[in-house]
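Sequence, C-alpha cells quoted for completeness.
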Amino acid sequence: MSGQDFTAEGGHGAVPLEGVPAAKAGHGSEREWPLYEVFVRGKRGLNHVHVGSLHAADDEMALRHARDVYTRRNEGVSVWVVQARHVAASSPDEKDPMFAPSGDKVYRHPTFYSIPDDVPHM
C-alpha cells in the first residue's frame, strides 16, 4: 500500500485520497473534501429533515456515507445530500424583517374572510 495517501480524519476510517483534488489556494495545504448537508425522510414522516453534515469527495460518496452514518438503524426511507455551498439561507439576524407579518396586506389574515357556518374544520 505504499504510495497511496490515506487519512482517518473524521473518525470514519482510512480513505484513499488518490485522485481527489487538493484544496484551493488560500484554504490550507491539506486536502479538503466539500461539506455536504444531509437530509433524511423517516418512515413516519412526509418531510426530509436536516440530520447533520459530512465531508465527501463527490455526490455518490456523500450518499453512501450519509446512509451509513445517519440511517444505521434502518429508520430512513430517503436520503438527500447537497453541498453546503449550494444552500442559500437567511440569517437569524434577519428574523424580524424576514418573518414579520405585513400589516398592510389584510388579505393574509384569516379574519378578513367570512367562513360559512356549514364549512367544517376551517
About this structure: The chain has a mean pLDDT of 76. The first strand starts at residue 6 and ends at 7.
